[in-house]
Design a protein that fits this description.
The chain has 91 residues and is mainly alpha-helical. It has a single domain, classed as Arc Repressor Mutant, subunit A, CATH 1.10.10.1930. The radius of gyration is 13 Å and the shape is globular. The chain binds ligand C2E (3 copies).
Length: 91
């Protein structure tokens, strides 16, 4: 079976991430901005990130990929259900 960090796509909620007041998320926001730039993906409200980049980011936060996912979870910056995420717009 896949390790937990590869079982599901890691999708960031960019609004939640960029608006979050906690300075602890600074490195995540920096990486997301840099990825948007490299992909030319400026208009999205969400960003799918590579498992490889999550691994590197975990090193920055002195944790494991699953530890980082938990942290991002606690900060409320992950999107799990894309359908539900986009459906909530239609209200
Ligand atoms: P690259 O790695 O040579 O990828 C070239 C193109 O292949 C990407 O252009 C994208 O259209 C496609 N591609 C590569 N991997 C994937 C993937 O896992 N899923 C999907 N859906 N498409 C993929 P793009 O997006 O314009 O990115 C240009 C270059 O920017 C990439 O060249 C890479 O060097 C860098 N880049 C983009 N996104 C990331 C990222 O999330 N992490 C890292 N480390 N580099 C990225
Ligand atoms: P998915 O990866 O599950 O993404 C569902 C929707 O979430 C996408 O609909 C898009 O609106 C949004 N989304 C996901 N990741 C990103 C992101 O990094 N940036 C932005 N701006 N939006 C994101 P969309 O574009 O209609 O794509 C539907 C499905 O088509 C995707 O499902 C994926 O399975 C596939 N797909 C789209 N583009 C590519 C591509 O370049 N390469 C590959 N391999 N698959 C793609
Ligand atoms: P995805 O497009 O559904 O791709 C799922 C996995 O398939 C990727 O997980 C990667 O392991 C593999 N894969 C897909 N396309 C390529 C490719 O062109 N080259 C290589 N070497 N592997 C590929 P990964 O890397 O964890 O990425 C997760 C998601 O992040 C991707 O889901 C995609 O939505 C997004 N992503 C990653 N890299 C790029 C990129 O360079 N450009 C864009 N636009 N999206 C990317």
């Amino acid at each position: 079976p896949l390790p937990v960090e590869q079982a599901e796509k890691i999708v960031l909620n960019l609004e939640a991430l960029y608006d979050h007041p906690d300075a602890d998320l600074e490195h995540v926001a920096k990486l997301a901005r840099s990825i948007q730039q490299r992909r030319g993906d400026y208009n999205g409200r969400i960003l799918s990130i590579r498992a490889d980049d999550l691994y590197t980011l975990a090193v920055v936060y002195s944790t494991t990929p699953s530890g980082l996912i938990e942290k991002l979870e606690d900060f409320g910056v992950l999107v799990h259900d894309l359908q539900a995420f986009f459906a909530s717009d239609a209200e």
